[in-house]
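User: For a reading group we're discussing how well predicted structures match intuition. Take NADPH:quinone oxidoreductase family protein. Before you show the prediction, I'll give you the sequence so everyone sees exactly what went in.
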Amino acid sequence: MKAVICKNFGPLDQLHYGDLPDPVAKPDEVVIRVEACGVNFPDGLLVQGLYQMKPPTPFVPGTEAAGTIESVGAEVKHLKAGQRVVCCNLLNCYAEKLAINAKMVLPLPNQIPFEEAAGLITAHATAHHALKQRANIQPGETLLVTGAAGGTGLAAVQIGKAMGARVIAAASSVEKLEQARLNGADILINYSEKDLKTELKTITNGQGVDVVYECVGGDTFDACARNMAWNGRLLVVGFASGKIPELAVNLALVKGFSLVGVFWGTFTQKQPKDFGANMQELLQWYLAGKVKVVVDQVFALEDTVKALEKVMSRKVIGKVILKP
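Assistant: Thanks. Here is the predicted 3D structure of NADPH:quinone oxidoreductase family protein, as structure tokens, for the group to look at:
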């Protein structure tokens, strides 16, 4: 089979598109013929050795895929060959075929195209886990989403609305903010033109934001930390700006807010039952039209480097998808 191989940590253009043996299912696994896989910002960090996780090399990157089951291990009873499925894995999705533990695989309704299903897992599931398990967001609360036009940012806007929040979207351009508006954002802030700290204070009448879904880091994080409501939850999701911020902990003390880490990959491993329940809810929301996947561009698997370069440049609105 063809796959994208990271032989050593380094620049994106050192990724290798080549041949690997076809995978064989262990007793508790299935082999999936991949029809589409999602591209995520952490994938680009991972292959450069810049992510929290550093797997042994060589490895195949990629955390989400959709496809058709090709073979089933002897112990797997709830899935069968020929079934349409989606899955998440810490690695191995940038390939024509994938062997994966059956617990991480879910049946895919026929109404959902493979390309959209492949983009539904990581971004939407991260936002869902963050707002549900980590923030316990309540109807009527105010949610601020930074980087609101990226894959996980748009997902957080949609899911925040589905959970009854008043959503403030912050992004760096008119085009990005328009996409956030189309996906349900109530209030828009262009932080390339206006001071985020000042705007948040004005919008909330100085009361602060209940929940912040923070994907950017750097100065954006600092502005959020200074505009938290009492009992607020500041969710640490990522650092797309490239700058990992430091928290002035006295702000958490005097404002009475919580800093809450969100690491979805570990959540799927530590709490697989909660992950499965979350995904079932997401699929139902998709079928009901409450959430959707905005596909920015589809690349051939052999063009993975170009796809990752686009994602890492922060020029994507929605999701980039790879197609073997």
